[in-house]
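Journal club side-thread
Mid-discussion, someone asked how the predicted structure for our own chain would compare to the paper's figures. Pasting it here so we can look after the session.
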Amino acid sequence: MTIFSKIIAGEIPSYKIAENDKFYAFLDVFPLREGHTLVVPKTEVDKLFDLDDDYLSELLTFAKPIAKAIEAAFKPNRCGLSVIGLEVPHAHMHLVPISSSNDLNFTQPKQKVSEEALKAVQEKILTHLLLYFFIAHRCLHHTAHEVAELLCVGVERQESILILGFKSSEHFLHFGFGGRGLGGCCADNEKGSEGEAGIFHVDV
């Protein structure tokens, strides 16, 4: 069993970003740049291109909203993608916010980041991942519980409305799913400034 399989199984703790039945995404604890995320197939294969075609295609589809959330959270020139795989014999891709080609230079010293800083990065990406799902209308294909399970956030029922939310010291995101649709908002707790909002129709 590889170290990634142990992380997926919960034997080693991680800062999870997203998960489904085939893939697992989590923060690199020694990142090249803030927001550096690993996307790993649950199938234990050494080389990425040994995955079958459908699995490989689904991996990119799974990674896309994470990459978009990284771009929105850290405002780089783009989210870079790298596949190396020499350190761990378990196929994976790196998603790294980059503004120059050197930002994807794996020979440079990696950052040593505190637990608090990693948790803040995790929460920031999750916040923007939620926004991506709803603002990009991906919510049209997911129920509240499906989105909550994918993004590891909470769902609670208040009267006839399902509340799906994510809260940290810097960000607050709150979506309500009801029979008439979904309302969402994002605001900065400290400044009280209004963020993006939208109304979408979804099935609960």
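Post-session note: The helical segments are 3-8, 53-74, 115-135, 144-151.
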